[in-house]
Amino acid sequence: MTNSRRVLFVVNDARFFVTHRLALARGVREAGYDVHVATPPTEGAARVIQDASFPVHLLSIDRQGINPVRELVVLSELVRLYARLRPDIVHHVTVKPVLYGTLAARVTRVPAVVNAISGLGRLFAFESSVGRVRVGVMHALYRMLLRHPNMYAIFQNESDRTRLIQARIASAATSTVVPGSGTELRRFTPSGKADMPPIVLLPARILRQKGVYEFCDAARKLNSEGLDARFAIAGDVAGNRDALSARELGELRKEGIVELWGWVDDMPSAMNRASIICLPSYHEGLPKALIDGCAAGRPIVATDVPGCRAVVQHGINGFLVPVKDSVALADALRLLLSDGELRRRFGTAARQIAEGRFDVASVIAATTGIYSTLLSSPSIATDFGHKT
Predict the structure, then answer these.
(1) Which domains does the chain have, with CATH numbers?
(2) 66, 78, 98, 345: which sits with the fewest CB atoms below 10 Å from its CB?
(3) Distinct helix (H) and strand (E) counts, the chain
């Protein structure tokens, strides 16, 4: 028997939960909550969550799918799960769990909802009339579905929060910025000796939107200049429609200028090998790759977009370059690769920034504080809580 409050995390990728939310879940459990996880069974990662002693509830949610019948199946799964599990709080992460999960929570009268908006990304980006229509549709969907009498929204950067407040989707009174997933500082050794020749590491899935094309172009340019450096990508394609094709991956491997390390379980060790962390992404919420790069005490080169700007202080711990500009990217990398003292100075500043802003303990404290606020709300239905 337990009377502890039950929290259900709902995610669309078990591996993402392991890399981005597992430490948070442990912290929430240590704060006295009964923590469960709902996720699709992504390549054995669900077993990792179970091995960490979290009950796992499997969903058929597809990160990329848009088949109406399958989407209705997912919604019905969530409704049944919420009705059976009777959580006090559901904590949704990423777009589909946020949209479908909030609707399911309304139907089943879940007392409290936390929606983590992990970057607006492509859904809210437009470069054409079709894109503007898509953004309008997404705004309408968010306004319609994100309705719950006791809900809080967590954003990863202030730019995204402001945008949705201005669009009347989020409320200033019931939203806040929490710096991403945070990082476990103790897992990183900022004094770790990097490999030589220096490695420029892009720690991300091999997606166009992560700036993989620009990274490869910059690597080719610097390689043609005879610069003594290695370039590597630590990540896989993850079945994403935006991923490079098998043919493109094969050509990259054959070319040999950029090393493809695949999925890396031990990211701290990979970052300790690198001299520079690079993320030329087109859009970000608050990239954990850069937070971890700071924790590792490595200088960073990233694009000048809201999520990256929240981590990189230009000229202090790294450089910000324009989106889709491989020439500017190569220029910034060349400067760092040619100046070991500059790399050391930026790396020291990066670690200090991580210690001051991105320790996972502060993320846990902020999250459990939000839980406490929601659970103390007078709108809570006292007859809903579980007894197991």
Answers:
(1) 6-182+360-375 (3.40.50.2000), 185-357 (3.40.50.2000)
(2) 66
(3) 15, 13
| Residue carrying the six token digits 């006292």 | 382
265 CB burial (10 A radius; 0-12, 13-18, 19+): exposed
Q: How far apart are CA 293 and CA 328, in angstroms?
A: 21
**Separation of alpha carbons 260 and 82, rounded Å:** 41
- 201 backbone dihedrals φ, ψ, rounded to 5°: -110, 125
Of 343, 336, 282, 286, nearest to 312 by C-alpha is: 286
Structural tokens at position 79: 């409704």
Integer Cα distance of 121 and 66 in angstroms: 17
The size of the chain, in residues, is: 388
For residue 194 the two structure tokens come to: 């990097």
Once rounded to an integer, what is the mean pLDDT over residues 78-101? 95
pTM of the complete model beyond 0.90: no
Report the alpha-carbon distance of residue 335 to residue 346 in Å, rounded.
12
> Is 289:263 a contact under the CB 8 Å cutoff?
no
- Identify residue 100 by its one-letter amino acid code: Y
Position 298, amino acid: R
Beta bridge pairs of residue 318: 300, 314
Contact at 8 Å (CB) between 261 and 234? yes
330-364: pLDDT as tens digits: 999 999 999 999 999 999 999 999 999 999 999 99
Radius of gyration of the chain (CA): 21
Under the banding of pLDDT at 50, 70 and 90, the label for residue 45 is confident
β-sheet with 175-177: strand ranges across: 56-58, 34-39, 6-10, 89-93, 112-117, 151-155, 175-177
- Confirm if 321 and 282 have CB atoms less than 8 A apart: no
Which conformational region is residue 86 in: left (phi greater than 0), alpha (psi within -120 to 50 degrees), or beta? Answer: left
Cα–Cα distance for residue pair 268/255, rounded to 1 Å = 27
The C-alpha atoms of residue 344 and residue 367 are separated, in whole angstroms, by 34
Distance CA 87, CA 101 (A): 12
Give the pLDDT confidence of 232-247 residue by residue, as tens digits. 999 987 667 788 888 9
Exposed e or buried b per residue across 187-223, where buried means at least 16 C-beta atoms within 10 angstroms of its C-beta: bbebeeebeeebbbbbbbbbbebbbbebbbbbbbbbb
* Rounded-to-10 torsion of CA 46, 48, 53, 59: -10
pLDDT tens by residue, 192-209? 678 899 999 999 999 999
